[in-house]
Amino acid sequence: MTQSATQTFPLTIHAHWRDTAANKGFDILKRIRDRYHLLLRCRTCGATHMGKIFVVMNNQPLCPHCIEHRWQADAKAAGLKWAGRDPQSRHHGFYIADCGHRLRRQLELVKRAAARICDVRCEACHSRKEQTEAEAQGWTLTGPDPESDPNYRLYRHPSCGHVQRIARVNMQTGRFGCGNCGDDWPAAPSHLYAMQFKLPNGALLVKLGFSRNPDSRLRHQLLKHHGLDAQILKTVPMPTGQLALQTEKRLHARVKSTFPDSIAPPDLYAGSINVRSEIYFAEVTREILRLLDEIDTDSAA
Prior knowledge:
By secondary structure, the chain is an alpha+beta fold.
């Protein structure tokens, strides 16, 4: 059989084929390749592609050009640049991140990122960010968590060589200690503090407490919303956490006995501050600061 004989097929394009294609958003231009295939033009983007007669008649044809345009739009909405399909996987594509690194990601993941359901991050840049976080606390990042917990990493304390699992959020906030050379909180230095909060409803409150790191305590533990107007009014260094706890309890007893009506009800601040007690109305702020000044003066004497 000659080559020309093998490539012959009926050239008829039936009217009901054209009507069906039109109803599904396509024009039939001609018969191509063999008797099973058509050249289709998408009425949405105007581009052409080859499709099967069976698909046109029994299913909804999909324009590959429109699909790629959607992938490009998803990439842009996710903060990425489309770099093409992955020839090894129909579920993956290549993208260029803002940092310039080339990423391979699932198409569905980028679609979710475009809808702000999740984020797409560059592993190389993220690893450098985590290393910088560790260095800021005097540690080095050595690798992922050996127990495969995504919230933990493995870190080394250069000063003593100890290697330890630490939650990344704790590394970011500094709320952890070295299991080899670190001190437990009762023996470690601490601070008394007074903090002021202005709630969305306009209420002005003050908190008296103690912490090894008052700024971390405020920014990463107490605030339920980072946009809340809050500030540290005063801190007083204490030689140990145990002494800070004892002093704090004594101060609370004095404030509550002298100003029993100053205790703010938890329902007032439950949606803004992540504690259930030891919050006062702003009227006692001056007294709390005075008490802290007395302790500060006695410590310096």
